[in-house]
Write a structure and sequence with these properties.
The complex is a heterodimer of chains A (338) and B (264). Chain A has helices at residues 7-17, 97-112, 118-124, 143-146, 172-179, 217-222, 228-232, 280-299, 309-313, 320-336, and strands at residues 2-5, 21-29, 40-45, 70-76, 81-83, 90-95, 127-132, 156-161, 164-169, 185-186, 239-246, 249-259. With 338 residues, chain A is an alpha+beta fold. In chain A, the strands form 2 sheets. In chain A, strands 3-2-6-7-8-9-1-10 form an 8-stranded mixed β-sheet. Chain B has a 7-stranded mixed β-sheet, sandwiched between helices. Classes of the chains: A alpha+beta (338), B alpha/beta (264). Chains A and B meet through strand 4, helix 3, strand 11, strand 12 and helix 8 of A and strand 4 of B. Chain B: One of its GO terms (molecular function) is metal ion binding. Chain B: Residues 6-97 form the FAD-binding FR-type domain.
Chain lengths: 338, 264
């Protein structure tokens, strides 16, 4: 059902929701940017609807709500283990269509690829998604080519309007709350873009042979394997186990999992000192093919959702979308040398 | 709610077998179903977890052969019989001995790669009638690096065993040279039907498989096992992914026809 609500009404609703939920949305962290005197737009808890940044892209995705950067799994002493408690509150996440599509990817890995993940599942079951409509695409977005520009998988949608906010609600629970404030019943369709400035073309003949192309060698020197592209990506899901022991009592500690990056040294190290993919270009190849080749072979659709954050964040100005567009020539090159 | 796969269980160390200065086998109490080539995530105190393949299965016990390769595994080497370790698993597909029954078998393994195949070799040493001729080529760097030395005496009774060292002097027990030197010397009766298992460092596996193919074995009859950094063991952490395969879920044992396309 569609509603139009004023700013004041929205804030009353948020304050009611805050009793049961943590509310996450892209917001502005003043002077928190990567360069001096710049702000950072990223996810954080909000109290008021005005805090949500609608006209800029969040530099980091919402994924830390479902996959905390560092997550304690359990505590242990010498002979016993105690599972870490789940957060007491659920979460409401304001996110755009590309990010909502990435939830499907996270679910694929964490709920279906082999075992179901206990810690992910217990957070996931208590997350409500609010789709933020997109009037126009940002410069680096390429969601249309990835087929992620529109989504119906939301609990509620939100678009700014002249008089406040227009909402489309699919959740019964939220509906009850909204109907207390509803000014009228509208038919609301969340805004979505149909074209983007950045375009990508994934060649239909793309295969692992692309690994033999010289195209990757450019990244050997340009890439500094900092891993930022992985950390901003809404579909990167890797982690590493880490044990922490308390300095005051070395026999007690906790096991955590922390975000990991396939671009950073140490990712593939095995016992005895061996490792795979030492060149940065090979790591780039591994990442790119995961996003646009092997994940699809396994699950039937591409992993990349075209949010373009990896392009925005790279300190060496390496563009993932440019790289995708080089794959066609790369395939020609390796086919000629067959 | 589904089971929390990350919570480990305590397992008692039943026996510690010292192979070399740096490689010990910990015989751990474990009662469930397990196959050779599968692995457990072992908690190393003050470090975290590491995947260790099952090197032997005996009533109520699994053998985990662990090499002291640095700070991370040191603490385990201070553990003794009666102490306990946290484990999770078993994970991975492992070797299915049924794939090799009734056939002529070749096993080629290098270094710690002997651990995951030990269960298979042992099975067919004890059940020699369930297979045709069998050869086991095992390579180690030096005399000091040999694992499962006592087992080799037992295995020699029922199969052709080539124990080779990278360097040194040849003796009655061991030959000198890489495993690939001894593959062409194998005398197989029905090479098209024979099956092979190859486990070891990447270069060793690559050249051993080439040598076996050269000999006339069929690609479809060769199995390999991959060593990767399996942090979670359950298809989540991503470290062990090669191409579209997760070594922890789809492997670590692959048919060569499946595994040969995988590029790291």
């Amino acid at each position: 059902m569609g509603y139009e609500l004023s700013k004041e009404q929205m804030n009353e609703i948020l304050s009611q929701l805050k009793e049961d939920y943590l509310i996450y949305a892209p917001k502005c962290f003043q002077d928190g940017g990567r360069f001096s005197d710049t702000d950072c737009i990223r996810y954080g808890e909000i109290n008021k609807i005005e805090e949500i940044v609608f006209d800029k892209k969040a530099e980091y995705s919402f994924k830390e709500v479902l996959l905390p950067i560092s997550q304690t799994l359990f505590y242990f002493t010498e002979d016993s283990v105690k599972e870490a408690d789940a957060p007491k509150q659920g979460a409401i996440v304001f996110l755009r269509s590309c990010d909502l599509h990435s939830v499907k990817r996270l679910d694929e890995i964490y709920l279906r690829n082999g075992f179901s993940d206990y810690y992910y599942q217990r957070l996931r079951e208590r997350v409500v998604f609010v789709l933020m409509g997109c009037q126009t695409a940002f410069d680096s977005c390429f969601c249309v080519d990835m087929g992620t520009n529109q989504s119906n998988e939301y609990d509620m949608s939100i678009d700014r309007s002249e008089n406040g906010y227009q909402l489309d609600c699919k959740s019964n629970q939220l509906e009850k709350l909204l109907s207390q404030y509803a000014t009228n019943n509208l038919s609301v369709t969340p805004a979505y873009v149909t074209e983007t400035k950045t375009r990508v073309n994934i060649p239909s003949n793309l295969s692992y042979q692309i690994g033999n192309s010289n195209m990757w060698r450019e990244y050997d020197t340009r890439c500094i394997n900092c891993g930022r592209c992985n950390f901003v990506c809404p579909t990167c899901t890797c982690f590493t186990m880490q044990d922490i022991f308390y300095t005051d009592n070395e026999k007690a500690g906790e096991r955590r999992r922390v975000w990991a990056s396939c671009m950073v040294d140490g990712y593939t190290d095995v016992a005895g000192g061996a490792s795979y993919r030492q060149k940065n270009g090979d790591r780039m190849r591994f990442k790119v093919l995961h996003k646009v080749l092997d994940y699809k072979e396994r699950n039937g659709y591409h992993m990349c959702v075209g949010c373009g954050r990896c392009d925005d964040i790279c300190p060496e100005y390496i563009s993932f979308s440019h790289c995708i567009n080089k794959l066609e020539n790369g395939m020609k090159e390796v086919m000629e040398h067959e | 709610m589904n089971k929390n796969e990350y919570i480990p269980f305590l397992s008692e160390i039943v026996e510690v077998i010292k192979h070399t200065e740096i490689e010990y086998t910990f015989r751990m109490a474990y009662d469930g179903e397990v196959k050779p080539g599968q692995f457990f995530e072992v908690s190393f105190p003050k470090y975290g977890e590491a995947p260790i393949s099952v090197s032997g299965i005996e009533n109520g016990c699994v053998d985990l052969t662990i090499r002291r390769v640095g700070k991370v595994t040191n603490e385990v080497f201070e553990k003794y019989v009666g102490d306990k370790l946290f484990l999770r698993g078993p994970y991975g597909n492992g070797f299915d001995v049924d794939d090799y029954k009734g056939k002529e078998i070749v096993v080629v393994a290098g270094g710690t790669g002997v651990s995951p195949v030990r269960g298979v070799v042992d099975y067919f040493a004890k059940n020699a009638s369930s297979r045709k001729d069998m050869s086991f080529i095992a390579g180690f760097k030096s005399k000091e690096d040999i694992l499962f030395e006592k087992d080799f005496e037992f295995w020699r009774e029922s199969m052709n065993v080539v124990l080779t060292l990278d360097a040194g002097e040849e003796t009655k027990e061991h030959k000198i040279g890489l495993v690939t030197k001894y593959i062409p010397q194998l005398k197989l009766k029905e090479v098209k039907e024979a099956v092979a298992i190859v486990v070891g460092p990447p270069a060793m596996m690559h050249f051993s498989v080439l040598a076996l193919l050269e000999l006339g074995l069929q690609e479809d009859n060769i199995w390999i096992s991959q060593e990767r950094k399996m942090c979670c063991g359950i298809g989540k952490c991503g470290h062990c992914k090669i191409g579209n395969q997760y070594v922890c879920l789809d492997g670590p044992v692959f048919r060569y026809t499946q595994g040969k396309h995988l590029v790291d």
